[in-house]
Every structure is written in C-alpha cells, then in structure tokens.
Design a protein that fits this description.
- The radius of gyration is 16 Å and the shape is globular.
- The chain has a single domain (about 5-160), classed as Jelly Rolls, CATH 2.60.120.480.
- The relative contact order is 0.33.
- By secondary structure, it is an all-beta fold.
- Strand 4 and strand 5 form a beta hairpin.
- The chain contains one helix and 15 strands; from the N terminus they run E-E-H-E-E-E-E-E-E-E-E-E-E-E-E-E.
- It has one helix at about 10-15; strands at about 5, 10, 20, 30, 35-40, 55-60, 70-75, 80-85, 90-95, 105-110, 115-120, 125, 130, 135-145, 150-160.
C-alpha cells in the first residue's frame, strides 16, 4: 500500500539539507541601474565539479495536479541543479536524504510565487513538477561528459497530497 506524503510550504529552513531556496528575501545587496533596480547578489552555489561547465537550459513541462503518484526519484552526483520558474506560479518540490545510495523517506514542498530552488549536488529529488501552466523553467546545471544522472524506482509508490 502506498505511503502518503503531505506537502509543506517551501522555506529556507525546511529545505536547507537539500539545497537552497532562491528568492528576494532580506535587503538587496545593492542598487544598480541608476538606483532603479535592486540586486540580490549570488543567491545560489552553482556546483559543476572540476570538469564541468555551467549550462543554462529551458525546460517546458506539463503541469500536474495533486494527489500525485511518486514512482521515481533521481539525483545528479556531479553537480547542483537550479530550477527557476519563468512565471509567478508555485511548483512542487520533492526531495529525500540519501540512505545507503537510495532515497530515504521523501519530503514534499510547494513553492510560493517568486521562489526558485537549487538542489545540492547528489540530492535525491522528484522530477520537475509545475502545478499550473505555464510549466516553463530556466535550469542552471552541469554540462559535461559524465552521465550525471542516477534514477531510483520505488517498489511501492508514494502518494503526495496537501492533506
């Protein structure tokens, strides 16, 4: 029988073991463009390892709805991966700690408008899951010769929902 995962709001504190929440929280680091633009500087640690390069891609994903059946998680052992929505819509973020080279018990978060995330290198996570249209994201991650992808399929899927 499937186990249920209840979503939580995405905050810097409850996400700190898995990656970074990228937002405009706090005071801007500087004003630029003749004082009409607030710069929130260096908000994520992009990790591409010693032999990778930073890549910027666009992902266009079909929106999904809750409850969601979680059958698989993946991780990228050689680099971090940032997802930046190109809309103000929230999205679903599913993560798990590593447990003997497999994902442990998953956790699920729903982002607020204006939030993006950067998964730390090697973090188990669900696939890109927008909850409304458009599902367009800028993705900053490692480009290199290694496969940089591991997938794990659960014998019994999880059900992700809000209650």
């Amino acid at each position: 029988m499937a186990q249920k995962i209840i979503t939580e709001p995405l905050t810097k504190t409850n996400f700190q073991d898995f990656g970074e929440v990228i937002d405009t929280g706090g005071d801007p680091d500087m004003l630029i463009n003749q004082g009409v633009c607030e710069r929130y500087h260096d908000r994520a640690k992009i990790d591409v390892g010693p032999d990778g390069k930073v890549g910027l891609s666009l992902f266009n994903s079909e929106p999904r709805s809750l409850p969601l059946v979680l059958k698989m998680m993946e991780r990228h052992p050689d680099g971090s991966q940032a997802f930046i929505p190109m809309s103000t819509n929230g999205f679903l973020v599913i993560v798990a700690n590593d447990k003997n080279n497999k994902p442990g018990a998953p956790k699920a978060f729903v982002s607020a408008p204006g939030q993006a995330i950067n998964f730390f290198k090697g973090t188990w996570h669900g696939v890109l899951t927008p909850l409304s249209e458009p599902g367009l994201f800028a993705v900053i991650d490692r480009i290199g010769k290694s496969q940089n992808l591991e997938e794990f399929f659960f014998e019994v899927p999880y059900i992700v929902d809000t209650v």
